[in-house]
Amino acid sequence: MLQRTLRLLTGLAALLLFASTACAAGTPIRIGGLFAVTGPASFLGEPERNTAQMVVNEINAAGGIKGRKLELVAYDTQGDATKAVQAVNRLIKEDKVCAIIGPSTTGDTMAVIPVAERARIPLISMAAGVKITEPVKKWVFKTAQNDGLAVEKIFEYLQKTHVRSVAILTVSDSFGSSGREQLKNHAAKYGITLVVDDTYGPKDTDMTAQLTKIRGSGAQALICWGTNPGPAIIARNAKQLGLKIPIFMSHGVSSKKFIDLAGEAAEGIILPSGRVIVADLLPNSDRQKKSLLAFVRDYQKHYRTEGDHFGGHAWDAIMLLKGALERGGDQPAAIRDQLERTRNFAGIGGIFNFSPRDHSGLTKDAFVLVAVKKHDWVLVK
C-alpha cells in the first residue's frame, strides 16, 4: 500500500511539474515601458512607444523568444516625474514585469531609478543624462548617447574650425542642467572659453533678452542645449535678431520635428545625432547602415513617417532585452547579468559594449554631426 501511495504521489508530482513547465513555456514574457507619449516631451515618447510596440509585434510574429510571446505593458508618464514613479511602481507591483524600458527623459529616469534599484528590476533608460549611468548603478542601463559625448563632438568641430569663444544657452531642467555641466567640464580641454553662460525656462516663449546679450558678447558660436519647443524658439528669435554666428543644438532636437518647428530659422544649424536621420547618406561600409535603413523603412510602413533618433532608442532597448532573454531567461537577475555582458551590438544608436564599469556602452563615435539644409538633414564633413 505504501509503495502504491508513493508511486501515485511521484506520478502526481511529475504531472504537476509538467503542467507548471508547460504553463511557464506558454506564458508571455512581460516587460514594462515608460514613455512620455503626451506632454512637452511627446516628440520623444510617441516614437519610442510606437517603435517598442512595433518591434515586440515583429518578434512575436517570428515565433517570440524560445517559443514565448513578449508582452509590452506601457504607461504614459507625460514627462512628469511623479507620474513616472507611480507608473514604475505599478509595473513592478501589479504588472509583475521582469524588465523595464524607459523613461523618455532624464528627469523621469532619475526619479524612477531608486524604485527599480530597490526592486532589483533591470531598467534600460532612453534618456541622455550622464548621471543615469555614471556612477554605474547595478540595475540601470541606457540606450541614448551620453550628453558628454555630444558635447565633445561639438567641441571637436569648434576646435577644428578655430572657434575659441562660445556662448551657451541651456534649459533649466534635468537635461539642460546635465548638458550645461558637461559643456563647462569639457571646454578647457578643447581650448574653448565660455563667454556667456545663460539659461531659459522649459516653458519660456521668448529668449530675445538672452540672445541680445550673446550678440554683444563677442562669442564666435552659440550652443543651445534643450528639447523642443525651446530650441526652435531660440532659432527663430536668433533669426529675427539677425544673429550671424553659427548655432549648434544638442542631440535633444535630433528629429524632423525641430525643423518643422523652427522653419526657415533652422537652416544651417548644426547638431550631433545618431546616424539614423542620415542613414541613406552613410557609406556602405558603415556597420549600422543595414539596420538603420531597415528601421527607417519599417517605421515608415507602420506609421507613415520616418523612423528617427528617438524611436531608435526604443529599438535598441527591446533588441538588447531580446538578446539578454535569449541568452539568460526571464528572471530579472539573469537579464541584468546578460545585459552587462552585451558586446558589439550594432544598434540604431551605435555599437554597444556594456561592462561592469560601463552601463551606457557607447563612445563619441556613436554620433555624427548633421546640419539643416533645405528643410532636411545633411552630414557635416
Automatic annotation (TrEMBL):
Residues 28-369 form the Leucine-binding protein domain. Residues 1-24 form the signal peptide. Keywords: Amino-acid transport, Signal, Transport. The keyword Transport applies. Pfam families: Peripla_BP_6 (PF13458). PANTHER family: BLR7848 PROTEIN, LEUCINE-SPECIFIC-BINDING PROTEIN. Belongs to the leucine-binding protein family. This is Branched-chain amino acid ABC transporter substrate-binding protein.
